[in-house]
Amino acid sequence: MSATNYSVGQVAGFAGTTVRTLHHYDEIGLLVPSERNHAGHRRYSEQDLDRLQQILFYRELGFPLDEVHTLLDDPSTDPRVHLKRQHDVLVARIEKLQKMAEAVEHAMEAQKMGIQLTPEERFEVFGDKDPEQYQQEAEERWGGTEAYAESQRRAATYTKDDWARISTETEDWGVRYAALVAAGEDAEGERAMDLAEEHRQHISRWYFDVSYEMHVCFGDMYVADERFKAFYDAMGEGVAEHLRDAIHANAVRRS
């Protein structure tokens, strides 16, 4: 065997293709080996390898085999025309893939956060409050519960308007509760318990059903966890502890 004569297996190895592919190219006349040995086995020359390289180049660009055949063998064909058309096809495909990637990223974020908002919309709705702040911790603590799963299912369907309404309701409730505390009203009074009940119903309406027993646990957490305490006390001095007591009183009243 000369240095310019290669078996089909060797050529497949050089080109990173398969023997079956080379056999197919031979059968359709796209790449017919220059020689065959006495046993009828295909033998490829250096010129054959050059042609294969061109075939693989066009295939990589997405040209079908019949067009590759025309590009290589029709002297009247201008490769630049074909390349320009294929370039336009590839640009359109890239733009489509980019849009698909953006859509997938948006869907992934929505599934992860349960919030179907753009970054601009999130800032508009939540301001400097980060809705992702406790996401990982919440998943670690309650990820296996039905309540957490239900909150994720609901949140994943909410629009910008839904989140804006939730935010407005929360702020309005906070203003009214802080005013009640500032006025010195008792946590076991009717108004305080009514606002505690409104708090429970808000969570049940937007996230998951909250029993009175669960609400009592939340109330305790609002005082025990310094982050929740800071959140409620930011509405007004003493709100966290007052709310806890009102939640307890409301649960007793409802029982």
Q: What would your notes on this structure say?
A:
The protein has about 260 residues and is an all-alpha fold. It is built from 13 helices and three strands; from the N terminus they run βααββααααααααααα. Strands 1-3-2 form a three-stranded antiparallel beta sheet. A hairpin with a 5-residue loop joins β2 and β3. The longest helix is centred in the middle third of the chain and has 35 residues. About 5% of the residues have low confidence.
Which key phrases capture this entry?
mainly alpha; 3-stranded antiparallel beta sheet; 3% strand; 255 residues; rod-shaped
Structure described in brief:
By secondary structure, the chain is mainly α. It has helices at residues 8-15, 19-27, 46-60, 65-73, 79-113, 119-126, 135-142, 146-155, 160-182, 190-206, 212-224, 226-233, 239-254; strands spanning 6-7, 35-36, 42-44. It has a three-stranded antiparallel beta sheet.
Order of helices and strands: EHHEEHHHHHHHHHHH
Spatial separation of the terminal alpha carbons = 96 Å
Helix content: over 70%
Q: Please provide the count of β strands.
A: 3
Main β-sheet, spatial strand arrangement: 1-3-2
Q: What is the count of helical runs?
A: 13
The best one-word shape is: rod-shaped
Helix and strand composition category? mainly alpha
The unreliable regions are 122-128, 130-139
Strand residue content: under 5%
Mean pLDDT: 82
Radius of gyration: 35 Å
Main sheet attributes: strand count, strand direction, barrel closure: 3 strands, antiparallel
